[in-house]
Fold these 4 entries.
Entry 1:
Amino acid sequence: MSIFSQYISFMLERQDQILELTTQHLYLTFIAVFFAVLVAVPLGITITRFEKAAGIVVGIANAVQALPSLALLGFLIPILGIGSKPSIVMIFLYSLLPIIKNTYTGLTNVDRAILEAGRGMGMTNWQLMKMVQLPLALPVIMAGIRISAVTAVGLTTIAALIGAGGLGQLIYRGISMVNNRMIIAGAVPAMVLTLVIDFLLNILEKLVTPKGIRRKAKK
Amino acid sequence: MRKLSLAIFVVLFAIAQVFCFSSTSYGAGESAGKVVVGSKNYTEQMVVGHMVAELIEAHTDLKVERKLHLGGTNVCFEALKRGSANNGIDIYVEYTGTGLVNILQMESKTDPQEVYEIVKKEFEDRWNLIWLEPWGFNNTYTLAVKEEFAKENGIETFSDLGKLADRLVFGCTMEFAERSDGYPGFKKAYGYSFKEVKAMDPGLMYSAIDNDLVQVISAFATDGLLVAHKLKILKDDKNFFPPYFAAPLVNGEVLKRYPQIGDVFNRLANSITDEDMQQLNYMVDGEGRDAAEVARIFLKERSYI
């Protein structure tokens, strides 16, 4: 019990710092994932039209994902320096794959019969995409964004290694000082952040699911 | 589709909020009259990093931004070459031996003055980076074992350790495992190697030796954790490790623009001993005090600020 209260008092003592680092953390994650969505969704849509390009794009995204994050940071420092810029670029690159993949899969897995029906009604390609494919694929796309966002929160902790701040700062400093209270003061807020983001995006995912394909409550 | 546009609107609105909020604290800002101080990712570097920042703040009109705890020598060095104008840093405290062996990739030398002179000349010629006067303490690499282990086995020097080496697991930093003035060179100089080498984060080495997962660790002579964890420093009886005197390393362009920085640090030339530094490190690692506070207290006590 006393250990527990020690942690609490440490967190209270440092609450300003923890709050500041949490905000930084959220900022880095948010900007990176936002731009990832901006790039990856249109890219995912585009490659459904060019089947040959699909393999290449997904392959490149896969390769980026396979590169260890610290190695990627090592490459980025000579180009972008240190601080938030290279960190955001790193998180951005890692966030691309799940969104591209889910967008592509979501769109290509729409039932052919539904597409035929749409075409039969005289819809153009664009109308079909806007009124049929996208709404039906939206839950899958949102799931991809959710995976990216949750992964990004964890990834952002290593931004502290190149001076971008964030909750990783407490974690890494705690490790180098062999100070468990400090590690926990960084890890717990990061965990809470992950859960909150996951929860909120889950709600959003449900909200965008078209009424027609929502799972009906059990009878 | 209405729901989709609503969702998009909500997200965009949130982003706009973040941008508005952040532009104050993260925007490019005015770079005039600002110096960015860096440091590597362990306690001593945090303390000296804060000292550098405090000194500049106290004796000049320059604004100081602290980018401390960067991930290792390479990150600091690359960032220093760029300077704060290019998203890097302007100054950090480096060790002469690290400059010689690790960055310049030159043969290890034992004479402190010679090492300082070589790095001073080479860094300026190659990258326009300037070494200021060393502060006096020599944070050399060393090996440490538990005090009781040393007593039981009668170990005082690195050579003594050689007799048991094939039964011992060695924990060291990733940097030490790779550097030519680290484990690879050590093996050559002493002619033995350990049963197993486990490279890890500096802070984790102490937990590892506490829990007997490793028996020997690489350490810094001025490390406060050595005191806190009851470890014994062994003697480098073949003088393998080069001297690692700490001195501020500054980007040459920044020093030209703000020559007052040089004067600020030369007050500290040769005035901090190994014991002083170990004490300061202990205040952070052993007593859990804030590195910034420890740096400030020390500088005030000695009336440097």
Note: Chain A touches chain B at residues 26-27, 30-31, 34, 70, 73-74, 77-78, 80-86, 130-131, 134-135, 138, 160-163, 169, 172-179, 204, 207-208 (CB under 8 Å).
Entry 2:
Amino acid sequence: MKKSSYIQLVLITATLASCNQSKKNDWDDNAKVHIRSDSTAPYTRVHHHGGMGVGTALLWYYAFRPYGNYNNGTYQRAGYYSSAIHPNSNVGTNGFKGAVTRGGFGRSGFSVSS
Amino acid sequence: MQRIKITPRNNWQTEVEKLGFGFHTTNIPYWDESVYYQFNMPEILAIEKATAELYDCCLGAVQHVMDQGLYAKFNIPAWAIPMIERSWTEDHPAIYGRFDLCYKDGQIKMLEFNADTPTSLYEAGIVQWFWLKDFDKDKDQFNSVHEKLIEYWKYLKNYLNAGPLYFTCLKETLEDLTNTEYLRDCAIQAGLETKLIFIDDIGWDSENREFLDLENQPIKNIFKLYPWEWLLSESFGKNMLEDKNKALWIEPAWKMILSNKAILPILWELYPNCPYLLPAYFEEGKLSNYVKKPILSREGANIDLVMKNMGIAKTEGQYGAEGFIYQELFTLPNFSDYYPVIGSWVIGQEPAGMGIREAESLITDNKSRFVPHLIG
């Protein structure tokens, strides 16, 4: 036989399928937005390309995600960052952020589909 | 090889969604079970043999590129060369790749090798396997993707750095996420500790010179569904050289040689007698029937098909700035105006199965559909 005899999946479930929700394209092409990840970082202009696909990605892009450290078993939030904005606006410093920057990968495309 | 029309399962959308396959239809159908391809066993064995031989040729070609220092032909920046060569000489873990093959008139020809970020793994390994279970469970299929993935993750476990194996991809694409999570699923079943982190969530600690996850834990092993040429061009790219943990990136850096279409003329130069290779050149004018391909491109973009020096098909796109290669034209077989390309998987250095994408034109682009197959 050339096929697998038995297949079990332990991670991928209908949860993934539930991600496949259509997203509203509510981006205004003329909008000029300056934004920063949190109050420790400088503002920069958000650039976008509008059009098909990009607008629908904004709901994903504009999630500002907290990040932080575990210290003696306690989580301490260092700040927020977002891939929607320029790296300069993710790099503000405070005592928890230290020298960590984010957003330095992930800007070259919207899918690797090949 | 036959194309056979059938009636899809009544509830096929529900069935595939139960598997976590959420991108079966976008604005156009992608998964298509109104048809399947039937192969006989000698045809499957021929595809398997071709895949194994081509993979051997590819490994030889990588060594040749390094020995001769041909990186400029691949538009690979000089600063990345030490990283590429280290990943090769230290035999960093590699898990998979997919040859795109044309099977026509008893001949098998390699069109390209998706060696770095191949997708459609989930469709090939899982979705069509469960389709066959419903359609005719006693029939066979060229598909040991799942068990080979688990076995190879088990094997690689001993070659990873201490700590979890991270999996990363872009965050706004369900297709990429599904392929990545499927690979992680198999790694979990192989007993590996894993974590998912989206590519733009990866942190860089400029004081300690290391990549970090969202909890500021060091990343020492990472599978990335994200092309090397993109990594290199981004602001964290050069940090990989400074990484104090020397994180293992999977696929390894040497795969950027094979995923680049500049490998096609190199392969032809090295192995002109290989029955699975098409003549290919860096120079225009050596062929009158050819395909002009950008050395870096995705989903059939910026392809020109030329016959007797006249264009017969063309796709638009944003690629080509890095240069082109010219490959002899070997058109896909025509099944009632449907043109299938075979994606033949290599997992853990071995042929592991195949998936078929079918287009309505000679160029397989992002509107092609995935159709299942069986061995009849």
Note: DSSP finds two helices and five strands in chain A.
Entry 3:
Amino acid sequence: MSAQNIRDAVIIGGNRIPFARAHTAYATAGNQDMLTSTLNGLVARFGLQGEQIGTVAAGAVMKHSKNFNLTRESVLGTPLDPKTPAFDVQMACATGMEAIGSMANKIKLGQIDSAIAGGVDSISDAPIVVTDELRGILMEANRAKTVSQRLKALAKIRPGHLAPQAPGVNEPRTGMSMGEHMAITAHAWGITRAEQDELALASHKNLAAAYDRGFFDDLVTPFKGVSRDNNMRADSTLEKLGKLSPAFGRDLGNEATMTAANSTALTDGASAVLLGSEEWADQHDLPKLANFIDYEEGAVDFVDGAEGLLMAPAYAAARMLKRNNLSFSDFEYLEIHEAFASTVLAQIKAWESEEFCKNKLGLDSALGTIDRSRLNVNGSSLAAGHPFAATGGRIVATLAKALHGKPGKLGFISVCAAGGQGITAIIEGR
Amino acid sequence: MARDTYTEFANTGFGRALTKNLGLPQPAKLRRHRPGRPLIEGPVVVLGSSAAASALADRLLGWNLDVRRHVGPKEKVAGVVACFDSASSPAALSSTVLETGMLLKQLKPSGRVITVSRDPLGTGDPAVRAARSAVQGLTRSTAHEMRAGGTANGIVLAEELDPSAPGVAGALRFLLSGRSAFVSGQFISVDSVNGALPGNWDRPLQGQVAVVTGAARGIGASIARTLHRDGAALILVDIPAAGEQLAGVANEVSGTALQLDITAPDAGERILAHAKQHHGRLDIVVHNAGITRDKLLANMDESRWNSVIAVNIESQLRMNRAFLASELFNADAHGAMGPRIISLASTSGIAGNRGQTNYAASKAGVMGMVSATAAQLAARHGTINAVAPGFIETEMTAKIPFATREVARRLNSLNQGGLPVDVAETIAFLASPQAGGTSGLTLRVCGQNLVGA
């Protein structure tokens, strides 16, 4: 398709429920409850009742098998036209970004005129599965043709088979948690405890200030009596953060730097972004906050330790900036997902490192520095929390609103993900 | 909302007999408006020989009602329209008053008595003003005597106003209908020939854009549903913390949810920006949001006083300034009826209420604001009015202790609490094109509450 046929994909707005620390306010809400409520809030904000949307794409990282059609089932629980198609996406913590980016592409190509994209995750309602041994026995009993065959199969069950298996957040190929992986990367880049704590504090302060000035009035809809992210600590101080013991990389002894405060808490929540073509937005009298310009997926070989687990965005960013002929100084705001404070800092240090950029990214020089006053200006995951698949929607809607009224000003997004993956994206204010 | 078990009981066969024998209040099941149902069922008798009597009889005939000048002694009637607009002295009221009295026993349940008179302040003649004032005393007392869900209200015409003006027809129809179920002992003044009769009486707000504050629950949600039923497109506002319920109401009425603290300095501008984005116009503003922070004055603290004043009246003053400075809120520009503002007052603001100095001050303030803003709206052919609810069955009044609530419910001529929809119906009427002749008024929806008269 020729470039002339590609049209703008407009970010119209977004909605999310406040994020809640796992096993707190949303302990009894499932993924479908949260995603449905989020979509309902989006429909109410933009008057989309009865509207047939081109496609709704969303997903969850932690998902019950009964939620095999989570997004479609959620759509059917909203006032949207039931003829609205929907599908599930899954790319670990980059699920929301992938959903949004791919829907923007469909709009750009003219395949659809409108889309809703987002994600949801619940740690509190995570699926618990039985052991592989027990599952094998149960399947065998299911296949049995006679009662005696069935009893024979079931007689194989041993007490040890009955222990439930909680879903793993460890990397399947290394058996290490994400935090332990990040601790290695942070140590390798020499990231200090102090700079991590400062980043965490800024996240809480920025998020609280944004709430206080009403910035989230049209981005967040309360859920189950929660009206602000309950992980947020507006009154936190460097002294308080400094008192915490390390949570990851304890084998580093005195050099361990990652604490519960400069690492993201496990969180429940959901988010959604409304996208459309310019014509669709105008026909429906809807605002046009920003254009979704481009996005790039990346992955690194972390299994044998060649690269840090969460460093894929460093590579994706380089390719994306080159393709768009941009540098970091071209961006009004930058949103780097705070999986851990050290994730953000390691990416920044990598982009500032001539050695890394030459050897790993194949560039002639360092990619550039990040102006910290433009970074995560309305808070990020350390304060808001990080319901895995919901983070992309939170970031895109927040950044789009920040860029609204600044036509032509650019925003940069970086989101790392499990499995050594990540996504970066560019949006442009209008 | 608390269940009114007593009213349910008193409307059973046994309950009706028992309450009658014991001389207890007999709250009736009120006739309420439902789209598609007749305006009123049964003969409507027009009494008097004035210009208004013939104009209104013609109007009623135009609505295909069974209009009579006389009825037989046994015949049931649905309503009586008693016209006193030409009365020159109190003595001249006699024949029409006595005819009205004879018909009271023939009134069907939820019957209507509507008096029509001229504004007492429109004349300097002592005998004429006495006659007009007498009609008001007569109307109020009749309202107290009504039974079986019946109401008595008055229409007060400005001195030279043509009784065939649309505002008179609008008021007449509202008072006859089930929309005014909980309005009794009240007067609707019609001051101008502004306004227009709707093409469809069941959709008078078709094509209009309305904003309702405090729309997430209770009376506000009911206002949203009622304006939606009457055809308006809706912008629903509530504080961000009420967003989940607000979204639910918005999705129910196909409106948009705007999470906003109305005390924010730019609240009016943000509502206007939203209206401009989604509709390109704004026609109706309903200032419903309000709070109570009850405390005896002796124990009143700064935060309770200031928050009630800020939310209930200062925010409205500030938002109105923004609306009236905007061309968006100028229906002349859209070739439609003039803009409408309706504010929630309260009977507490009229009579005062122990423990509510802050609330009563704010609500009396609303009435003052409304009367003083009418001139600015008139410049746009618009209106501003207030509605003062009495005891309404809401989540808020459900929290009143049982005995107090039970007494409060019965202390009115209809012996029951009103429903949120009763307040909403009156607001929808004042928002409608047929109410264009009425401005600066505070209309009570209180079942003629005994306090605050």
Note: Chain A has a mean pLDDT of 93.
Entry 4:
Amino acid sequence: MANIKISEDKIKVIKDIAKSFGNKPGEVINVLHQVQGKFGYLPAEVQEVVAHELNIPVSRVYGIVSFYSFFTMEPKGEHPIDICLGTACYVRGAEKVLDAFQRNLNIQVGKCTPDGKFSLNTLRCVGACGLAPVAMIGDKVYGRLTPDMVPGIIAEYK
Amino acid sequence: MVVMDETSCMPAIAKFYLEFTCEESCGKCSPCRIGNKRLCELLEKITNGNGTMDDLNALRNLAAVIKDSALCGLGQTSPNPVLSTLDNFWDEYVEHVVDKKCRAGVCKKLMQYVIDPEKCIGCGKCAKNCPAETISRTDYTAPGHKLASMVIEQSKCVKCGACYQNCKFGAISIK
Amino acid sequence: MINVTIDNKAIQVPEGTTILKAARMAGIEIPTLCYFELDGMKFENKPGGCRVCMVEVTKDFNGKPRRNLAPACATDCVEGMEVLTASPRALNARKTVLELILSDHPNDCLQCEKSGDCELQALAAKMGIREIPFKGEQSHYEKDTTLSVYRDMDKCVYCRRCETMCSKFQSVGALSGVNRGFPSVVAPAFEQKLGDSSCVNCGQCVQVCPVGALTLVDNINDVRKALADPTKKVVVQTAPAVRVALGEEFGMEPGTIVTGKMAAALRRLGFDYVFDTDWSADLTIMEEGTELLGRVKKLLAGDKDVKMPMFTSCCPAWVTFYEKNFPDLLGHPSTAKSPQGMFGAVTKNYFAPKIGVKREDVVCVSIMPCLAKKSECARPELGNGTDQDVNFSLTTRELAHMLKQSNIDLNSMPEEDFDSPLGQSTGAAVIFGATGGVMEAALRTAYEVHTGKTLPKIDFEECRGIFGESIREATVDFAGLPVKIAICYGLSNARKLMEEVREGNPNGYHFIEVMACPGGCIGGAGQPYHHGKSDIIKRRMDAIYREDAGKPIRKSHENPDIIAIYKEYYGEPCGHLSHEQLHTHYFDKSDKVEITK
């Protein structure tokens, strides 16, 4: 079976979170939610410990992590970029904006720049359709985007 | 509510919705897991100009079966954009399949940017903005213009539209 | 009871009956793919996912037609319901759904291990699929194999039977549905190799897989090579459960006993010695029974350290299960090797010198109803470092396949006997093949050895049966000493018992028998595919007990060849030499956590 390598303090964080949910198997999503909140992502060894604490198979934990797009096994960039591909943004040219981000950062969707500064993802509607097309960097919303605005926006975070 | 006009291509819009449902499909039932993927691939084929009339029939049957047999509300409604665009914009589908035309100019494989040599003043702004370096100068100078007109090498064009957006003289059109 | 009409046939069914089952009652078989049930054995997989069993409900609870088609496996009948199972609409959906499933399935039936036994292939034939109108991306995954199970997930139809078997019935939890949408697949955690997961190689995922996504690791060629090698003496042993199932592969009724024909067929294949695992099952009883009595005596003498209850250790999937999950309880299972393991040890240590051949030149092959036996015979401690005691383990299905390749029709074989001296066995040995059998066999011997009296009644009915309680319990009176026993199949039940033991054995069990597979070895993963028909397993069980009842000797300690080998070679059960050769030890195989900075 698995040979798990993990630090003591990480185990403690996971144990405390699991305990706060009574170590109940039914709370696995809540536990994963909080654990990801602490670590930013859910690497394999963290999932192993979560499974152990809740007394469920690690295959089930991984099943959940791989099912929900919210959970990630990849660390996110310092500035996570999310491009909205909702209907309104789409018809107003979100794809071209996305292309511009990919070109300027030289990464594909779902990936992180080698320096760890930016990660690029897409989502479906942030509820700001009036500003379409929209992108979010961290918690900041950028609206009425055109491809030529992209280099300037990226420069703000460099 | 999202209002669309003649710049939206209906088969492309249907494909856009299907891409979304493919992402959202949980994968549990086969009509949604595989069916939506196949709908999407059929629409991809059509919007790329490779579709046939048989594909349109397959599209309609598949969409109806997914609607009728999927397990949850997502799968039962995911084919609706296909079915309603087929019902209301049948002629657009036929144009894509038979005439290989996208009237909205959205489907890149079915369109080209063309410079009208009579309108082009030869300023070269289009060539400067072309990311694929596909625009060059011709030998032809239209009557009344000082510089020779520009031309796009269609085989290299990535259909980004940068030339079209940058031409201030209305010399570039979508065909 | 409620009234329903299916395909214009009016019938009455109990409330809570699904359309699928109601249709069966009316003699109408609606095709299914993901649905799988072992009726009466507490196993049901009903995700409602494949959508092959879609039917048209023309009159629902409200008197109106249902808007969408309904999955027959997951829709309960309601009073007055009217259903069409083969209306044009239902047929079109069924066919289209099947075409979709086939559009993401390799087109390699001719080379597929499952060909002929594949439920998808059968459905495609039934529905008359002639072309697949949908071309598109197909799923591709890396092939993966353990010593027992081969995974080709390109063929997975996501029915999730394997997952339900692995996580619910066995509580092993090696497999889970992962990812979403089109890339959904059943896989171990992190899509790692199955061998690196909590898998115990029970192989029940293979037994229930409708297609060729999960198959066995085929060792036929290894055995053929040994048979063709003139420098090798090839010895074969056949497990109890094989003789009541092999016939099915040759068109015989389930439950046909083919012991004699099988021995004849093995001889035709070219094995030099055709022996019987039943013989070593008798040997197992001598060792395990003696060990049990030893532990009971220690307990009665007030020994606080004696590990009670004792568990059986014949089932290799069960052995791996407790090594991976209960490393703190490794002292509880009997140290006796399994009958396969004992047979291998006797062959290489006793029989090889007896016939004057080096152990390396004797190839020991086992025919097992089991996939885990393939992994068991490769365990390093069951060999001398360079030569395994049992070299290759074939399943019942592989033997059938080998016979067919060699143009040997089991039907036309004469009845022949096993060879001597490792061929004679008792009724106690043959019942090893069914759940409760090891327990019953052990009780027959332990009772008589302990009390010195003849059993008043040889049949322990309380040990028998594949339906009913998940965990069967009984107290057997050993002339004033009440011996408390428990029997279960399915590792989820074993897990419950182990957890009880961890909590101090509140029920005071002395001896527990565990088999991983449904109904014991007769429902093993190496047996002919039963496709969910628990009746087939039942008929194999009946055959086992028929074979037992027909044996002149029915107690292991009365087997003359067993008595002889103790006299000639081993001395006494649990003696020095038998400890060396017939007993083993267990290893902590649980997850290891390494603390880093």
Note: The two ends of chain A are 44 Å apart (CA to CA).
